[in-house]
Each structure stands twice: as C-alpha cells, then as structure tokens.
Amino acid sequence: MASEDVKASESAVEKIVNLAEEAKLARQEIKPTSHAVISICKSLVAGGVAGGVSRTAVAPLERLKILLQVQNPHNIKYNGTISGLKYIWRTEGFKGLFKGNGTNCARIVPNSAVKFFSYEQASKGILYLYQQQTGNEDAQLTPLLRLGAGACAGIIAMSATYPMDMVRGRITVQTEKSPYQYRGMFHALSTILREEGPRALYKGWLPSVIGVIPYVGLNFAVYESLKDWLVKTKPLGLVDDSTELGVVTRLACGAVAGTVGQTVAYPLDVVRRRMQMVGWKDAASIVTGDGKSKASVEYSGMIDTFRKTVRYEGVRALYKGLVPNSVKVVPSIAIAFVTYEQVKDLLGVEIRISD
Asked: Which family does it belong to (predicted)?
C-alpha cells in the first residue's frame, strides 16, 4: 500500500510539473502575440496621426483643388491658386478655407492608418516571396517590388474608406444652391443612402482604385528608394555616420515622392471627382455639344467621363487644379512620411517603414 501511495504521489507531482511547464509555454506564446498586437496598434496610431497632421496642414489647398476640378468652365470663380484662396477668404472667411476638413480628417485618419500598415505587411510578404524565389535570404526589395506593395496598400485603404471620400467631396463643394444641404458627415451619409442609394457612395470608385496604383505605389517606391540611395551614396553629407537621414532630408524625399505620384495619377483624380458630383448642376461642369452653358453633363462611367471632359473642355481640363494640388502635395506627403516615422520612433517601434 505504501508503495502504491508513493507511486500515486509521484504521478500527481509529475502531472503538476507538466501542467506548470504547459502554463509556462503558454505564457511564452502569449507574450509575442501580445507584443505583436501592441506593435500593430502603434503602427495604426502612427499612420492615423500622420494622415491627420499632414492633411490639416494643407486643408485650404485641398479645398481649392476640388473647387477648381468641378467648377463651371463658363462661370469661373477660382482662377489660380492665390486668387482662388483670396476669393474663398473674401466670400466665406477663415472657416471657408477649412470647410470639409473635419470630414476629410475623419476619412484620412483611418485611410492613412490602413495604408501605412498595409504597406508594411505587403512589403514583408512580397519580400518573403522574393527571397524564396531567388533563394537569397539577404535579398532586399527593389523599387518595382516597393511599387507593388504600395499599390496593394493604396487599393486596400481606398476601398475601405471610399464612402468617406465621397461625402467629403460633396460637403467641400456644396453651396447655397446645391441640391442637398448637408449638415455634417453622418447627415450626408444618411441623405445619400436615402436619396441616391448605396451605390452612390462608390461613384468614381474605379478610377480612384486605378489612380492609387501609380499614386500610392510611386509615393512609397520613390520615398524608400531615395532614402536607400542616400544612405548608400552619402552625397553632400546628407547622411551622418549612423546612416540616419535628417528630418529635412526625409522631408525632401517625401516631397519628391509626392510630386511624382500625383503628377502621374492626377487625371484620374479629376475624373473621379466629376463622377462623384454628377447631378450637382452648381458644382459640376455645365457644357453641351455647342459649348454653351445649358445643362449638366451626365457621365455614365470612367471612360465616358474622360471622353466628354476632353471633348468639351480639352485635355487641359484633366489637369484642372494641378498647381494648387502640387503645392499641397509637396508638404502633405513629406509631412505624412516624416510624421509617421517620428511617431513610431516615439512609440518605440522601428523607424523604417518596411523591414
């Protein structure tokens, strides 16, 4: 009996030890998972802050760009960047410069958060596949692969937040003569759903998605490739011994990246905005076949919008608002990239956008 009791005691001790080991292993498994969740949250926060800060900084130029894109060519109110800003100030005051910015930030904050995070994940996945394909574990992302990762990030972020962009555009251009008077973001969403149906929230989605492929893709590809080139070549003493780029240098990289991306994708942005404004006779262009201002042009799709815009207003119409947009994009993209990296640094996450 004593022998059996001893065996039972030993068996119980073994079970307790095994349970303790299992609990220890479970805790070890939970720690990295918890760390990963925290890291994801920090990355999303950094991306959201970057989007909000950068977009608010250039809100007046953003509004002027949209007004230039959709104004009636036979009743010009906003003629150029400086004169356009002065006209808004004179007719609507300081608040007019930031009209729609609250809704814009409500869209851009999650958009930016998803975009930066999606780029990190896409670049890691693409790099892994590239390393497996080449058999070189030390291989790094090429500019073309970064372009692909950026395109994936742009498509995901655009699709996830597109209804907010639609609403922001409507609120930004509405006047006293607009068919609907939106009191705010949620009122605009409910009104569009009720009066025009769910599909109206995605008007212009196709050219938007096509547009973000070169726009966001080139932003990330040019920005990171420029940074890598500067770190490797160290021209003009722009990189210190620690191979870290200064804030001003990174701002310059972001400015170049933004300028390249928006120049390539801008015509698609004009088409998207016009498709969103269909039915707004005081916001959209009003032209007919004889070139006179008689009725609003109705667009049946992306190709039709391109065709009618070029036919009635010429190729230059596809670049309406490009100047204020260029002035806006240079600081906006630069501020977004640098703010993202700085916030991640403050939160204790790796600075580099992609590993």
From this structure: Belongs to the mitochondrial carrier (TC 2.A.29) family.
The pair of structure tokens assigned to 173 is 């251009």
State the average pLDDT over residues 312-340. Answer: 85
Domain contains 326: yes
In angstroms, rounded to a whole number, what is the distance separating the alpha carbons of residues 293 and 96?
Answer: 27
Identify the residue whose tokens are 């007004």: 67
How many angstroms separate the CA atoms of 264 and 214, rounded? Answer: 7
Q: What is the pTM of this model?
A: 0.69
Is 351 domain-assigned?
no
Angle subtended by helix axes 205-233 and 302-313, to nearest 10: 80
Estimate the crossing angle of helix 2-57 against helix 59-70, to 10 degrees: 60
Residue 69 belongs to some domain of the structure: yes
CA atoms within 13 A on the CB side of 259: 11
Which residue range forms the structural domain that includes residue 73?
A: 2-346
Are 143 and 217 a contacting pair, CB within 8 Å? no
Query: What is the signed CA dihedral for 223, 226, 227, 233, rounded to 10 degrees?
Result: 180
Question: Which bin fits 236, alpha (ψ -120 to 50), beta or left (φ > 0)?
Answer: left
Residue 108: exposure state from Cβ atoms within 10 A (0-12, 13-18, ≥19): buried
Question: Does a structural domain hold residue 355?
Answer: no
97-156 pLDDT, tens digit each: 888 788 778 878 998 999 999 999 999 999 999 999 888 888 888 999 999 999 999 999
Cα(52)–Cα(102) distance, integer angstroms:
10
Total domains in the chain come to 1
Phi first, then psi, for residue 318 (nearest 5°) are -70, -10
- CATH code assigned at 281: 1.50.40.10
Is the four-CA dihedral 41, 45, 47, 48 of positive or negative sign?
positive
> Quick check: 326 and 259 in contact, CB under 8 A?
yes
The predicted-structure confidence for 336-348, as pLDDT tens digits, reads as follows: 999 998 898 888 7
Quickly count: other Cβ atoms within 10 Å of residue 139's Cβ: 14
In sequence order, the 6+-apart residues with CB closer than 8 A to the CB of 40 are 117
Q: What is the Cα–Cα distance from 174 to 112, expressed in whole angstroms? A: 25
